[in-house]
Amino acid sequence: MSTDNKGDQDVVAVILKDHRTMEDLFRRMRSIESDRAAALKEFSALLIAHGEAEEAEVYGALKRFRGVDNEEVEHGSEEHTEGNKALLALLEVEDVGSDAWDERLEELVKAVSHHLDEEERTILNGARENVPDERRAELAAAFQKERAKLLASDCGSPENVRKIIDGDG
């Protein structure tokens, strides 16, 4: 993507764009007319790359700004772990579209939707109001670089998700 695009230069906008993509992928995973397994594979990679890049490049930097609630940032990290555990539970169901798969999908949707909503209302609004444009642009570049590196590494594989959870535990 072109760096002239203003949205690519604001970490808040970049994160929000991923959030909307995740919601679209939830719709695809719920639809019997979609390739649900492909949607899950895409979602898994995005969720892991997004969360790991946030924690590596964004959360720590945001904690340094007044007006960004550090407890919310810590809570965001905890919610990443919850979302990753729900993701792994879904990845471990072999029969896509089975009752077990659908139940675990709904648990994943619930965990991740709660996190997206909370992060948007607390952390991202705090960043939008208190972090200068120039710093948000630097964070966007760092976030996107880390995210791209993770996406290129098959980060959404069940083995990698399990490794991340074990590392968090």
Could you please describe the fold and organization of this structure?
This protein has 169 residues and is mostly helical. Helices cover 78% and strands 0% of the residues. It contains six helices and no strands. The protein has helices at residues 11-30, 36-62, 70-91, 99-130, 133-151, 158-168. Helix 1 packs antiparallel against helix 4 (99-130), helix 2 packs antiparallel against helix 5 (133-151) and helix 3 (70-91) runs antiparallel to helix 6. The N and C termini lie far apart (36 Å).
Keywords:
6 helices, 169 residues
Quick description:
This protein has 6 helices and no strands.
What Rg do the Cα atoms give? 16 Å
Would you tell me the structural class of the helices and strands? Answer: mainly alpha
- What's the helical proportion of residues? over 70%
Strand content: under 5%
Low-confidence stretches: none
Distance between the termini: 36 Å
Mean pLDDT: 93
Q: Helix segment count?
A: 6
Number of β-strand runs:
0
Shape summary: elongated
Oligomer: single chain
Largest sheet: none
Question: How do the helices and strands line up, and which of them pair or pack?
Answer:
Blueprint (H helix, E strand, L loop, with lengths): L10 H20 L5 H27 L7 H22 L7 H32 L2 H19 L6 H11 L1
